[in-house]
Design a protein that fits this description.
The chain is α/β, with parallel strands linked by helices. It has 12 helices and 21 strands. Strands 4, 14, 15, 16, 17, 18, 19, 20 and 21 form a 9-stranded mixed β-sheet that branches. An 8-stranded parallel β-barrel has the order 5-6-7-8-9-11-12-13, surrounded by 5 helices. The structure holds pyridoxal-5'-phosphate (PLP).
């Protein structure tokens, strides 16, 4: 069942989110519409924090960079993992303290590194080349930067290849066999203070064994680097905890992750004789299930399949098209109705791949019904585009029956926003 207490519920045959009837939301705001439940964000954060009470949680800003949503996480005490100058700007604006921000990225511009130096955040350095550039920028500003080195641990999680980041052939990080040499070099460089070690093996991982492999491999490196005389203050193991998108899918919980990681981390820290802080960077787990995308049925078509044509496509939710992701869908105004047939839910975009849900058992669907796409809170709106000349939709925050608009819908002016037409075309 898709219902979650105090989050997604059924009332009078309608889907309710955060105490608010989705049919009322559509009447007031129209579709497509992203709807996020504030309380669910807080609950997810607290559950993670409870499983890792001594760790710092750096929210992975790329999963959802709506400012209000980042403020909610900042209020809960989250730090941030940012991957660009824009994400750094948003994280600071959201009120996340600079000492809890780690600036990641495999191809940072000099301007981005300057911004890191000016704002005084920590940097996860992805290559020796970057290390030298940062050293030059920091020393020219007479600053010393606290850094981690991003390690490519060569661990292969079972997940979609496009979200596997710690394979030997991945573009991220310094090969684990070269890491010790890299720390030797970092210690000598002006303006560089190596105090951390970082990795991230991938996303939507549904099995805990890659995490135990990772923590062991990282503690091996912590041991070698400590022997060099480097005093590490933190070990950041990234994230990647999957969530159950499919009915019946079982995902490890933060507590399961903690049960695997903490005993190894504690035992080995003690053996090495170091007192380091553990950092984790959850994205999907905190936001994924907090949000639904409401979309209206424009047209029904019976062809080789029964197609439900809705008003949101991969312009607003690219995950199915990009990663073959499964998102559960329900007919929000008919949640009590019995299954009637098998439907394929497609968007309005002029691309064959614009399919949101393949072959799903749904109640009898008709024009103007509301289809809710669940678990759209991570890598949803933030990956949207204006493809096919479609302005982006609004985002709504609900909380215990209250409703706030947290992003206005775009209009045709936004399609033209930064375009300039040279005089000869006027
Ligand atoms: C994407 C990313 C994360 C978040 O991953 P989730 O699977 O969403 O939890 C954390 N750290 C880094 C470095 C990332 O690139």
């Amino acid at each position: 069942m898709f219902t979650i207490k105090n989050h997604l519920e059924k009332r009078n045959g309608h889907l309710i989110i955060g105490g608010v009837d989705t049919v009322d939301l559509v009447e007031e705001f129209g579709t497509p519409l992203y709807v996020t439940n504030e309380q669910r964000i807080r609950d997810n954060y607290r559950r993670y924090h409870q499983a890792f009470p001594e760790a710092d949680l750096y929210y992975a800003a790329k999963a959802n960079n709506n400012l209000t949503i980042m403020r909610i996480l900042a209020q809960e005490g989250a730090g941030a993992d940012v991957f660009s100058d824009g994400e750094l700007y948003l994280a600071l604006l959201a009120g996340i303290p600079r000492e809890k921000i780690l600036f990641n990225g495999n191809s940072k511009t000099d301007r981005e590194l300057e911004m890191a130096v000016e704002t005084g955040v920590r940097v996860s350095v992805d290559s020796l080349d970057e290390l030298h550039t940062l050293s030059r920028i920091a020393s020219s500003q007479k600053k010393t930067m606290d850094i981690a080195l991003r390690v490519n641990p060569d661990v292969s999680p079972v997940t979609h290849p496009k979200i596997s980041t710690g394979l030997k052939t991945s573009k991220f990080g310094i090969p684990h066999k070269e890491v010790v040499e890299a720390y030797k070099e970092a210690v000598e460089l002006e303006g560089i203070n190596p105090i951390g070690m970082h990795c991230h093996i991938g996303s939507q991982i549904l099995d805990t064994s890659p995490f135990s492999e990772t923590i062991n491999r990282m503690m091996d490196l912590v041991e070698q680097v400590t022997r060099l005389g480097v005093e590490l203050e933190f070990l950041d193991i990234g994230s990647g905890l999957g969530i159950p998108y499919k009915k019946g899918e079982v995902a490890p919980t933060p507590q399961d992750l903690s049960d695997i990681v903490l005993p190894i981390f504690r035992k080995r820290s003690q053996a090495i004789g170091v007192d380091i802080k553990l950092v984790i960077e959850p994205g999907r787990y905190l936001l994924g299930d907090t949000t639904i995308l409401l979309t209206s049925v424009n047209t029904m078509k019976k062809a080789a399949k029964k197609f439900v044509g809705v008003d949101a496509g991969f312009n607003l939710l690219i995950r199915p098209a990009m990663y073959d992701s499964y998102h559960h869908v329900v007919v929000a105004n008919k949640v009590a109705a019995p299954v009637s047939s098998i439907y394929t839910v497609v968007g309005p975009i002029c691309e064959t791949g614009d399919i949101l849900a393949h072959d799903r058992e749904l109640p009898a669907v008709e024009k103007d019904d509301i289809v809710a796409i669940l678990d759209a809170g991570a890598y949803g709106f933030c990956m949207s585009s204006q493809y096919n000349g479609r302005p982006r939709c609004a985002e709504i925050l609900v909380n215990e029956g209250k409703v706030d608009v947290i992003r206005k819908a775009e209009n045709f002016d936004d399609l033209m926003a930064k375009q300039l037409v040279p005089a000869r075309f006027l």
